[in-house]
Every structure is written in structure tokens, then in C-alpha cells.
């Protein structure tokens, strides 16, 4: 959901329920909403740095380690569209408060996790409530700030939280893991949530949309279940036994069966969306050439971005033996590159249009990912890793701003909310699928390498070399995904500089 969408949507449906005047405590409300949103953004990356410690503590296998990330991003991305509808019809303030409360409870369950399953379920539950909280936050801001200049400032603050939160999550995760315990990466949400709830109840006004309030529950269930089974199928392909041999692989009946059922459920989702009166995802939004190409590219970019952060964090701690804090700080150049490029692309967008910026960004990001394939067991950070991450981040940053704008090109006012929400959902879903796929690719490559070098005189060194070989293979695959994203933009996106909305969409990079 974007501020353009909610502004149109708000003016159209909220005229009778919300007086269009400035709320006296709107700036204090902005602080509350921004803090709550920061909590959601942080949790997408804060556990990356904590993962090796959580993995050792709870006995999480290599094949299943990606669920710590994907359980969150899957439910968050899969339910984001439904969360926006719930916020509109049930009440934005009520949804916001319930979202924070549920997020805090899920964080407490994750912090108290006793095995891998309990942690994965807690992370999934965090995603569910995050999918309520995020769209409710945006909708509330559109109601609170009715003046165009004030609204621009408010969404600027919100956008900065969205852009910088991921970077802050990496550092905060390192600090908490190193000086407290990995569990505090989740438990830290509880005091923040309590303060936000108390203030929100007293300060934030309620608002809701009028009209048809039916929800597309079948669509939400089919989409989320289909995507989850697809990730599970990818995970099964990389599962190993006690001897570090692959149990199933890509061609086993179990793997193919899971992927087949997942694709069937996703096909059913498309059928349901074309026939239901109140679809979660109107097919007319996705099937328009430019927007459809942008959503597909967004999915692939999400896969590359989240996958890269996932493997870089593992490499730093498991191979180079950095502390969690050192690992978090050394991952920051990706975010620095993103923020620099986002600023530059915002200025270039009205001059040259979204297509050349986004296509160039995809290629530059792929180059950065390819440069990461130079890593080794004792690679120097400054010469091999740092430049690669800066280039990768810069390329990704060039794609984020145009994506948010392309989402609204040629869309009807009625579909504007769904159109821009799909960008956020596609990146989260892409991150889930990409992390699962690349994790399995890495495990398969590492297992094969270890098997081929089993007779080497130093098994410990061979183990590290096999891990690095797996990461390198994953980076090659990730770079391929980013190149394909650039090609899709070149082929499908037809939007020019004149098609860019006057007010760019807030995009959750």
C-alpha cells in the first residue's frame, strides 16, 4: 500500500467517517507509527546475524536454517494484501494495535523457543501480525496528514525507516547476540511494543472504510499455502543425512511431489482470483504488461537481495570467524549502497524514466554478486568483500525507487492500493523463495564438493572449503536471478518519464 493509493482510497471512502482536518497530535502519532514499523522492518534482518548462534543452540540443520528467515517473510508477504483489507474494513487503529500486540506475543514465543519448530512457528506468527501492522501504519498516516507538504514529510520519515531499518537490524542483531543472547533479537520487541500500544490507544485516531467489507479468505489461504509448500519442496531437495549425503535431491518423488502440489495450489489461486467478486489480487492489476514485468522483476530482485544478506552473514561468522557485531557492521555496505543509489535514482527518475534506471540497477547488482564469488576461506574483507557489497547495494538501490512508481502506472484509482502493495509482497515472497532455493543450491554444491574431497588430509579445512564453495555457487545463481530481472525490465516495462506519478509511491525496500 502506498501513500498515493491510500490518499485516493481515503478520499473516496473515508469522507463520511474521518473529518478532513489535521489531527492535533499527528506528529506524536507519526513517532508511534514509525517505531512500530521499525520493529517490523528490523525483524526481517535482525536474525540473520543471530542465525549461527540460534542454529547451534537449537540444533537447526543446514537445510532448515533458511526457515528462520523465510517463515517470517513468507507469511508477511503472503498475507500483506489481506492485511490491508482488514485494516480498511475492521478499523486502522484497531488493526494497528492488534498487530503490535500479536507481534510482541510472537516475539516472546520466539525468544523462548526450545527447538527449531517452535522458533519457525514464532517467526511465521510474527509475519502474520506484521502483515496487519504494516498496511495499517500507512493507512493511518494518510488519514492523519491531510496537508500535502506535511504528508510528504511524514512519508519521508516513514520511507527512511523502511530503508534504514534493515541496516539497523544487522547492527542491532550483532550487538544483542554478542553482548546478551541471540534470543534478545526477538525479546527486544516486547518493551517497544508495550510503549507503542499504550501511546497508540491514547493518541492515534480510529478510521475505517465504508462499503463492501468481504474478505478473500480462500485466496489468502491458497496463496500462502502454495508458497509455503514450494519453499518446503526446495528445502527437502537440500536435506542431508548424518553422513552429509543428500537424502532426496531435486529429482526425488518427495521433492517433485511437494513442488507439484505447490504449483497446483498457486494455479488454483489464479483461478479463484479471476472468479471471486472481491479478489485479494485483481488479475487486471498483474496482467498489464508493464506492471506484470515490474512485479516479476521485483520478485527476482527480492530473491537476490535477501539471499545475499543471508549467505554473507553465514560466511562472516562460520568461515571468517567474525563476532556477531563485527559481522553486522561489515554487512552494512549493502545498505549504504542502497541508500546512496535510492537518492540518486529519485533525482533521475523524472528526467529519464524508470526503465533505464531499473535495468541498469539489475545489471550492476548482478556484477556486485558476481564479485562476491571471489571469496575464499581466508579472503581479505577490504579487497574482496567490501567493494562487492557496495556495488551490489548500489545496484539494488537503483531498482527500489522505480519499482514503487511503476506499480502505479496506468492503474485505476480503485486498484491503486492493491497495485502498490503487490510490490512489497512480491519482494517478501521473492526473498522467501530465493533464500530457500539458494540455500538448497549451496547445500547441494557443498555436499558434492565435500564428497569429491573426502580423502583430503585436513577434514576441517575441507569442511570450510566446501561451505565456501556452496556460498560461491549460491552467489552465481543469485547473480543469474538479477540478470533475468534486468532482462524482464528491458522486455516488458514500457513506462517512460511521462508515466511516472507526480507523487512517487512509498516503497518498502
Set out the fold topology:
Blueprint lengths: L2 H11 L12 H33 L8 H24 L1 H20 L4 H29 L3 H32 L4 H4 L1 H15 L13 H21 L15 H23 L7 H5 L1 H31 L4 H29 L1 H18 L9 H26 L9 H37 L6 H34 L17
Helix pairs in contact: 1-5, 1-16, 2-3, 2-5, 2-6, 2-8, 2-12, 3-4, 3-5, 3-9, 3-16, 4-5, 4-8, 5-6, 6-13, 9-10, 9-16, 12-13, 12-15, 12-16, 12-17, 13-14, 13-15, 14-15, 14-17, 16-17
Explain what the structure shows.
By secondary structure, the chain is an all-alpha fold. It has three domains: 1-213, MFS general substrate transporter like domains (Growth Hormone, Chain: A, Up-down Bundle), CATH 1.20.1250.20; 216-277; 283-509, Up-down Bundle (Growth Hormone, Chain: A), CATH 1.20.1250.20. 77% of the residues lie in helices and 0% in strands. The chain has 17 helices and no strands. The chain starts with a helix and ends in a 17-residue tail after the last helix.
Number of strands: 0
CATH fold naming of the largest domain: Growth Hormone, Chain: A
Q: How large is the share of residues in beta strands?
A: under 5%
Summed over residues and divided by their number, the pLDDT gives a mean of: 85
CATH superfamily of the largest domain: MFS general substrate transporter like domains
- Annotation field: number of helices: 17
What structural class results from the helix and strand content?
Answer: mainly alpha
* The first-level CATH class name of the largest domain: Mainly Alpha
In whole angstroms, the N-to-C terminal distance is 13 Å
Helix content: over 70%
Under the CATH scheme, which architecture of the largest domain would be assigned?
Up-down Bundle
Order of helices and strands: HHHHHHHHHHHHHHHHH
- How many structural domains can be distinguished in the coordinates? 3
Report the sheet with the most strands, covering strand number, pairing sense and barrel closure: none
Mind telling me the C-alpha Rg? 22 Å
Poorly predicted regions: 1-20, 502-509
Amino acid at each position: 500500500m502506498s501513500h498515493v493509493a491510500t490518499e485516493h482510497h481515503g478520499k473516496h471512502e473515508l469522507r463520511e467517517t474521518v473529518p478532513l482536518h489535521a489531527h492535533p497530535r499527528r506528529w506524536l502519532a507519526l513517532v508511534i507509527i514509525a517505531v512500530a514499523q521499525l520493529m517490523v522492518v528490523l525483524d526481517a534482518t535482525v536474525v540473520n546475524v543471530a542465525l549461527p548462534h540460534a542454529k547451534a543452540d537449537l540444533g537447526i540443520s543446514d537445510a532448515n536454517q533458511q526457515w528462520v528467515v523465510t517463515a517470517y517473510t513468507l507469511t508477511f508477504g503472503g498475507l500483506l494484501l489481506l492485511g490491508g483489507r482488514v485494516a480498511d474494513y475492521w478499523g486502522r487503529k484497531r488493526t494497528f494495535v492488534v498487530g503490535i500486540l500479536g507481534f510482541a506475543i510472537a516475539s516472546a514465543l520466539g525468544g523462548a523457543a526450545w527447538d527449531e519448530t517452535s522458533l519457525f512457528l514464532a517467526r511465521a506468527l510474527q509475519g502474520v501480525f506484521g502483515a496487519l501492522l504494516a498496511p495499517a501504519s500507512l493507512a493511518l498516516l494518510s488519514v492523519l496528514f491531510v496537508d500535502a507538504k506535511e504528508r510528504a514529510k511524514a512519508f519521508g520519515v516513514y520511507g527512511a525507516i523502511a530503508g534504514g531499518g534493515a541496516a539497523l537490524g544487522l547492527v542491532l542483531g550483532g550487538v544483542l547476540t554478542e553482548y546478551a543472547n541471540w534470543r534478545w533479537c526477538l525479546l527486544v520487541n516486547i518493551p517497544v511494543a508495550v510503549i507503542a500500544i499504550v501511546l497508540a490507544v491514547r493518541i492515534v485516531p480510529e478510521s475505517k472504510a465504508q462499503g463492501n467489507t468481504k474478505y478473500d479468505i480462500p485466496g489468502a489461504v491458497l496463496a500462502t499455502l502454495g508458497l509455503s509448500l514450494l519453499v518446503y519442496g526446495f528445502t527437502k531437495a537440500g536435506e542431508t543425512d548424518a553422513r552429509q549425503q543428500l537424502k532426496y535431491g531435486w529429482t526425488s518423488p518427495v521433492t517433485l511431489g511437494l513442488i507439484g502440489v505447490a504449483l497446483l495450489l498457486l494455479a488454483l489461486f489464479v483461478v479463484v482470483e479471476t472468479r471471486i467478486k472481491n479478489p485479494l489480487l485483481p488479475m487486471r492489476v498483474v496482467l498489464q504488461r508493464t506492471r506484470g514485468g515490474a512485479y516479476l522483476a521485483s520478485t527476482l530482485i527480492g530473491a537476490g537481495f535477501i539471499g545475499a544478506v543471508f549467505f554473507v552473514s553465514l560466511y562472516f561468522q562460520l568461515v571468517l570467524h567474525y563476532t556477531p557485531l563485527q559481522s553486522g557492521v561489515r554487512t552494512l555496505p549493502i545498505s549504504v549502497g542502497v541508500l546512496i543509489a535510492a537518492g540518486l535514482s529519485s533525482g533521475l527518475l523524472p528526467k529519464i524514466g524508470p526503465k533505464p534506471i531499473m535495468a541498469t540497477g539489475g545489471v550492476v547488482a548482478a556484477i556486485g554478486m558476481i564479485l562476491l564469488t571471489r571469496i575464499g576461506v581466508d579472503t581479505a574483507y577490504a579487497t574482496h568483500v567490501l567493494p562487492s557489497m557496495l556495488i551490489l547495494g548500489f545496484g539494488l538501490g537503483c531498482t527500489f525507487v522505480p519499482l514503487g512508481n511503476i506499480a502505479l502506472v496506468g492503474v485505476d484509482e480503485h486498484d491503486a492500493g492493491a497495485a502498490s502493495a503487490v510490490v512489497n509482497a512480491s519482494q517478501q515472497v521473492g526473498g522467501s523463495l530465493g533464500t530457500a532455493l539458494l540455500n538448497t543450491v549451496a547445500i547441494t554444491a557443498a555436499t558434492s564438493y565435500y564428497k569429491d574431497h573426502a580423502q583430503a588430509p585436513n577434514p576441517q579445512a575441507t569442511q570450510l572449503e566446501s561451505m565456501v564453495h556452496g556460498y560461491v555457487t549460491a552467489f552465481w545463481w543469485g547473480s543469474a536471478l538479477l540478470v533475468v530481472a534486468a532482462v524482464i525490465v528491458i522486455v516488458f516495462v514500457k513506462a517512460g518519464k511521462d508515466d511516472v506519478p507526480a507523487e512517487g509511491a512509498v516503497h518498502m525496500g
